[in-house]
Inverse folding.
């Protein structure tokens, strides 16, 4: 599966509608617009035409691609979950913290958003990253 080029990964900004659609596509790809609409109908109440129009726009943006089989159009993603999450994270970091990681972490830790278990897991991740960095510098 082709994915968007590396330099564009952090520039991904998906709308709420695009997020809803691409999550269904990831879970069902390749899939028809009708499959996406059926999956979102109870949650969003969107008509088929709304979903199809949004998906066609996502194709033009390079987020989805279409494979045609006779009269059927099957949609697949052109971005990975990881790419989308990185783009969303960068967007939030830029908007809320002027792109600075340290103030974001201070905010999260200072506002009791972490349980003791979360903090222990975070310590393990930092220790692991420190170890990886030390190994790379050898």
């Amino acid at each position: 599966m082709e994915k968007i080029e590396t330099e564009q990964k952090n520039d991904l900004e998906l709308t709420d509608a695009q997020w809803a659609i691409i999550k269904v596509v990831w879970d069902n790809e390749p899939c028809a617009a009708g499959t996406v609409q059926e999956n979102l109908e109870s949650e969003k109440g969107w008509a088929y035409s709304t979903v199809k129009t949004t998906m066609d726009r996502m194709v033009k943006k390079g987020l989805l691609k279409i494979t045609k089989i006779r009269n059927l159009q099957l949609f697949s993603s052109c971005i990975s979950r990881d790419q989308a999450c990185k783009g969303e994270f960068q967007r939030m970091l830029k908007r809320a913290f002027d792109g600075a990681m340290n103030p974001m972490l201070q905010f999260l830790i200072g506002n009791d958003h972490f349980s003791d278990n979360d903090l222990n897991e975070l310590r393990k991740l930092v220790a692991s990253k420190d170890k990886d960095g030390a190994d790379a510098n050898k």
About this structure: The chain has two domains: 6-81, 100-138. Residues 1-10 have pLDDT under 50 and may be disordered. The helical segments are 6-9, 16-28, 33-44, 48-60, 81-97, 101-110, 116-136. Residues 100-138 form one domain.
